[in-house]
Structure prediction request, 137 residues.
Amino acid sequence: MMPGGRVNERQMKLMMKRLGMTTAPIENVEEVIIRTRDQEHVLKAPEVTVLTVQGVRTYQVVGEPTIRPRTASSPSSGPESPSVAAAPAGPPAEDIQLVVEQTGVSRAEAIEALDAAGGAPAEAILSLLSRRGGGDR
Prediction:
């Protein structure tokens, strides 16, 4: 894994601290649902860990999923659902706010980044942060 041989847990923690990385478990998670256009991946009682690197949080979810098709009665289901048809277009307000808080960009820029990332807040944040760090100042 690492050049020069095995690294013990203490050395790994020190290296992560030097790189500005922290990990923390989220306790007592009951369920995680990942929704795609056609399916829901439901993980009951998964292990969830948050990895924070320079202020950007990444969630690691470990568990055995149950995959089921999306139905009209599923929350936020596809276009056939009347509740979704009446909902305003664009990313959820919570996602927009998260991107604005984490990156310091305007609301319009956050919406544009979320649209480009397919609605994934983490990808939008990483994209915006990489643009800043890319030397185009």
